[in-house]
TrEMBL record:
The gene is Atp6v1f. Pfam families: ATP-synt_F. This is V-ATPase 14 kDa subunit. One of its GO terms (cellular component) is proton-transporting V-type ATPase, V1 domain. SUPFAM superfamilies: AtpF-like.
C-alpha cells in the first residue's frame, strides 16, 4: 500500500451512507468489495457483524446458515507438501473479510444505533487502526453515554483534563 492512503468505511442507514458516498468516500477494492454497507430492515444482524469484523469462514466450512455457498464462490484447494490443504471432499470457500480485517481501511464510521446492535464486536476492537467512530443518524441522535470509544478515551484522562 506504499503511496496510497487508507480508506474510510461507513456503515449505516441509506441516507447516512448516501451522504458519505456523495462526499466521495465510495470505493471498491481489487476484489470488488465496497467500503460501505447500507443497512435496511431486511439486513440480518449476522451480515452486519460479518461486514464489520473478520468472520471465521475457512476452507471446508459452510456459512452461517449451514447451507453451502454459491458454487461460483468455490475456490480450488491449495496444495501443500503432502497434498491438498483443504481435502477434496470438502468445499473450499474464501474467508469473508470485514472492515476490521482490511488493510486498506483506516477508519470505520458506524451509526450509533447500528453499533448498539453489534456492541460486543465494537467493544472487542482494541487496535488503533482502523479507528472506529460512532456517528449519529437521521433517526437516532448521538448519545455520548452509549459511545464505547468515548468511554475508553475518558478512562485515559483525568476528569479535569476533559473540561
Amino acid at each position: 500500500m506504499a503511496g496510497r492512503g487508507k480508506l474510510i468505511a461507513v456503515m449505516g442507514d441509506e441516507d447516512t451512507v448516501t451522504g458519505f458516498l456523495l462526499g466521495g468516500i465510495g470505493e471498491l477494492d481489487k476484489h470488488r468489495r465496497p467500503n460501505f454497507l447500507v443497512v435496511e430492515k431486511e439486513t440480518s444482524l449476522a451480515e452486519i457483524e460479518e461486514t464489520f469484523r473478520f468472520s471465521g469462514l475457512v476452507p471446508g466450512v459452510f456459512g452461517g446458515s449451514g447451507a453451502p455457498r454459491d458454487p461460483e464462490e468455490r475456490v480450488p484447494p491449495r496444495w501443500g507438501a503432502h497434498g491438498p490443504v483443504c481435502p477434496l471432499i470438502l468445499p473450499c470457500f474464501p474467508a469473508r473479510r470485514g472492515f476490521l480485517a482490511r488493510e486498506d481501511v483506516g477508519m470505520i464510521l458506524i451509526s450509533q444505533a447500528l453499533a448498539e446492535q453489534i456492541r460486543p464486536a465494537v467493544a472487542a476492537h482494541a487496535r488503533a487502526l482502523p479507528a472506529v467512530l460512532e456517528i449519529p443518524s437521521k433517526d437516532h441522535p448521538y448519545d455520548p453515554a452509549r459511545d464505547s470509544v468515548l468511554r475508553r478515551a475518558r478512562g485515559l484522562f483525568a476528569p479535569d483534563e476533559l473540561r
